[in-house]
Amino acid sequence: MAVILLFIDGVGLGDEAEYNPWFTHATPHLRQLLSGHSLTRRAVGQHGEEILLLETDAKLGVPGIPQSATGQATIFTGRNAPLAMGAHMSGFPFKRLREWVERDNIYLQFEKKGWKATFANSYTKEYFERPATKRGWVSVSTAAIRSSKEPIRMLPDLLAGRAVYHDLTRRTLKRFLPDIAEISPEQAATDLWRIAQEAHLVIHEFFLSDYAGHKQDLKLISWVVETYDRFLGELVRLKKKEDVIVLTSDHGNSEDLRAKTHTENSVPTLIIGKRDGMANCELENWDLTNIAPLLHQLVQHQMNQKD
Predict the structure, then answer these.
(1) Is the Cβ–Cβ distance between 121 and 202 less than 8 Å?
(2) Residue 242: inside a domain, yes or no?
């Protein structure tokens, strides 16, 4: 039994329009899941017994455009970060937000219950050797995993298939390590699924979607959409009937290439698998604070099924 959280940065539920690459580009696996629809707001709702797409509020009652640091902090903690910080905060978290995440997050919450949550992404040693700045180079996801007892996955883990690179195929890693072989998104899905068998929860973070949206890079966003669709399709093919996949994002961006900035669109929470463990979930007014409690409930249900 496995619960997998796929965090994909900067993907909102946009329009069925020419400026939305999640609509215009080929996503056969997403469309198969969503009754022929692409990943847009039109697809929101239930699709068969095991597919549910929830429109997810990323504003969280705070004025302004949702941003990465506070959106991710909310996902990884289950608490309203922009409300606690007094504003939406972008990029890497400043010390105050970073320490807020380090005090309480999904990894620590699982540890207290005797459960295992792990981060599938791998790092290079150079990542941790970059010179410190006032804000720092540590992302929310990195701050969260570093606060736990769970080991951080490094390059040897990646090469052994015990980790997944942020871009899935390792193509960006080749710029620094030319001898690294690229893999297919299907292989990345296989590696992630294998990691998931050894934990109650595994999390993967993909952020090229947000980068491509900011750059308005049509070639890159085409690669992102089609690669991620292949990855998701293979992961769904591999999952067992008791496994659950949850996909979500921190804010909108890449679904509207008319501007380089983030959007105010809601984001997706796509739940793939049996929803027996969601009996206590209140699906109305769904927002990013609901993601962590959902993961707790899904894992608790799986634990109950084992007893």
Answers:
(1) no
(2) yes
CA angle 73, 78, 83 (to 5 degrees): 65
Calculated CA dihedral for residues 256, 79, 54, 225, nearest 10 degrees: 40
Cα separation of the two ends of the chain: 13
* Domain assignment of residue 167, yes or no: yes
Cα–Cα separations (whole angstroms), residue 207 to 42, 71, 85, 211, 247: 24, 13, 23, 7, 13
**CATH code, domain with 127:** 3.40.720.10
pTM: 0.96
pLDDT tens sequence for the chain (307 residues) = 799 999 999 999 999 999 999 999 999 999 999 999 999 999 999 998 899 999 999 999 999 999 999 999 999 999 999 999 999 999 889 999 999 999 999 999 999 999 999 999 999 888 877 766 656 678 999 999 999 999 999 999 999 999 999 999 999 999 889 999 999 999 999 999 999 999 999 999 999 999 999 999 999 999 999 999 999 999 999 999 999 999 999 999 999 999 999 999 999 999 999 877 777 777 889 999 999 999 999 999 888 887 6
* 223-232 exposure pattern, b = at least 16 Cβ within 10 A, e = fewer: bbbbbbbbbb
Q: What are phi and psi of 4, to 5 degrees?
A: -120, 125
Which domain range does residue 243 map to?
3-63+106-134+153-306
Task: Tell me whether residue 168 is in a domain.
Answer: yes
DSSP 266: -
Distance, CA of 261 to CA of 244 (rounded, Å): 32
Instruction: Look at the block and give the residue holding tokens 């996902």.
Output: 75
Residues paired with residue 52 on neighbouring β-strands, in sequence order = 46, 271
